[in-house]
Amino acid sequence: MDRMEVVRADDDRDTYYINMGPQHPSTHGVLRLRLHLDGERIIDAEPIIGYGHRAHEKMAENRDYLQFLPNTSRVDYLSGMIYNLAYCQAIEKALEIEVPERAEYIRIIAGELNRISSHLLWLGTFLLDLGGITPFLYCFDDREKILDILDSVTGSRLTYCYGRFGGVTMDVDETFLENTAAFCTYFHKRLVEYDKLVIGNVIFQERTKGVGIFAPEIAARYAVTGPCLRALGQARDVRKDEPYGIYERFDFAVPTCEKGDCFDRSIVRMEEMRQSLAIIEQALRDIPSGPVMAAKVPKRIRPPEGEYHFGVESARGHFGIYIVSDGSDIPFRMKLRTPSFAHISTMPEVLVGTMLADTVAILGSIDIVIPEIDR
Amino acid sequence: MRFLKDIFAGTLTLLTGMRVTLQHFLRPPVTTQYPLEKLEMSEAYRDVIVLIEKEELGTHDCIDCQACVRVCPSMCIEIEGHRPEGLKRKRATKFEVDFALCSECGLCLDVCPTDTLGYGRDYDEAGYQRSDFIYDLLKPWRSGEETALKRIGEIEAAKAAERDAKKKAAAAAKKAAAAKKDAASTDPPTEKDA
Amino acid sequence: MSPNFVEIFGNPWLAILVAMSAIIGYLTLNALMLIWLERKLSARIQRRMGPTEVGPYGLLQTVADMGKLISKELLTPEHVQKPLYLAAPVLVFAPVVALCSLFPVSPSWVFHDYNIALVLLLAISGTNVLGIFIAGWGSNNKYAVLGAVRSVAQNIAYEIPLILAVIPVVMTARTLSLYGITEAQSAFPYILVQPLAAIIFLIAATAETNRAPFDIPEAESELVAGFHTEYSGMRFGMFFFAEYSNMVIACGLATVLFLGGWKGPLLPGFVWFFIKVYALIVLMMWFRWTFPRLRFDQLMKFAWVVLVPLAIVNLLVTTIVLKLI
Which CATH number is associated with domain B49-147? Predict the structure, then answer.
């Protein structure tokens, strides 16, 4: 294309195309958004994905079930623990392996800590896109504490390979439990601070209220889940609707809002962090002692021929693992249903009519992770 | 009137935000000034795998079973071994890990039958070319290999002797029991025997 | 009355040369110091260290950065309109030097005391948007044009509350000369009698200098880098330089109008002047690192719907009160 052609006249209107990404400070990862603009208004938005494709599902067809474990964390690196444990739970359900109680409690604590760290990163980068650079640093400081806690038991900070079929690799000790309890106390105060600095800020509210409203029928058509759906008023949460692990023993609320704009999504996520803290505190109180690995785990993982599905609530929404097994060591097909894929598909419909500055706010508030879209 | 109230409320939130940043300004920074200050890694920290010394052997215990090679999802381990003269178990002669491919999953540690693999503690890995990341895990063990083999030989001999002694004792006990049974039995031979 | 600088030097051209050198020297030093201050302040607010390596407490970091910028290749992209592209950095910087000469730093340190100094200052500062617009237009780049257009609209919109906030001060002091306004604040600084005007002025000045939360023209996360996308090396440095110098001018004007300029006990005049100016600059930096950015239409709405009516009401009240006194 001739570089002098800056503006292309299209149909009588002076419209032009802007390419946001794949290298752009505020598309979260390598997303390319081709926007068709009329002045500041968007007429059409086309997300072009695939820049982060790493063929995880194809790799699943060439590795046996145990060897696929490290891949699971890397699909969505911000909820790496949740995805890793979800895969373990999927195979355990298929082979009917029973997980000891202590391992279940540890999984709950680790999963909820991961959820909090993912929401913290979302908050920091959302504010960064809106122009407030300071909360990003505060969120990462809090995240350091979570990562240090998880590092002390799993050895990794971001991509965990902590779960195994039948339990977890390493047991947690008293220091882990004490550190987690101390973190919970500390984080309650930090959430109040975030409310004062971020959520209560009039500029933040002006930027996010009334922006990016999802119509409920768009949400239904594109299978939107997670905080984006809860902001519309529908209290759907996999942990409550189809409980897995031992989530039914915990007492927590599913926060919802009404309008479904960026502000509501932010409120829902802040409240989810509080609920995660409640879950962690209950788990710390009730964790029993015992082994962390099931006694009888088959040497060769060979789910009987058939199809298995398992869904969990990740930080972004409903994550589903669908395994088609032909009775051998290696899965015939493994499909990973990631929530961000559904959310990015709604963008063409949601972004039409908004302004360019709102695009950034909307993309930030739906909390997408591009590697999860491309897998 | 509501216009003025909104402006006032909005300004108040801005001032609250400024107070939060002021409070943070007055607190000390949370930076660790690497490389002048170094961080302590946790016990469970995962870095390149290393061979751990087994106490009774005084050396590592890799028996070239290739279990870790088979389980590694990134296929980054290469092991070669031989059976030293006079010993029952095999011994590794080459153990190379291409760390650039390793994903720190820990599966090799899980499947090792002799539990001789563990994690290292260094995190300052930097190199100028890819071959810098092919680690030879046997390097710290090569110098003591001779004495190690001798020791293993002794341990195996001791174990073999113990096994022989047990076998003899068991056989002797069996004979004694059979003899006792013969002597204790007073039944004449029956027609069946003929 | 103030001393006449030209008389001291005799030859007017020599006076101009000395004045310009002094101003440019001061502005360079000022930019060096302000960039260091901004980095350290933002770092401490964000609980990190800021520059520490180059020089004690990182004081020479900006010198190193300037050296890096100067040593860079002055790359002129192929598709730009050369005359406009090359003229823009100069046009952005030129008004700043002229404006700095108008400030009464202390009773004896004035280059020339114009009796319409305030009008001159506001008029010349209105031309700095020209440089920004030419930079964006000459870059021949969608992002730059967007940034330039937004900047023009923003600057024009915020001129009005700025001037409306200045008029009550002029009415109270009964003179347009900056020296005279400072003299008129012998008893008390005008911020005590005109608090609303002071706040409006500060907000409008932040918007005029394109500082956060009004930094849409250089919004990094939306338009890559706004109107200076295509500039690299020292040309980019000039824009930065001009922005920090504009900050000094805006805060200097606020000091003269509302905080009493050089007035203050014990310390000599120019020390008080600089203390007040830099205190206001720290306040502007504090704004930047606390608040997110306003969206462009909200920015304009804020100017027209909130600031202008408040400024007009303030003007009316001042008029009535002055008439009654």
Answer: 3.30.70.3270
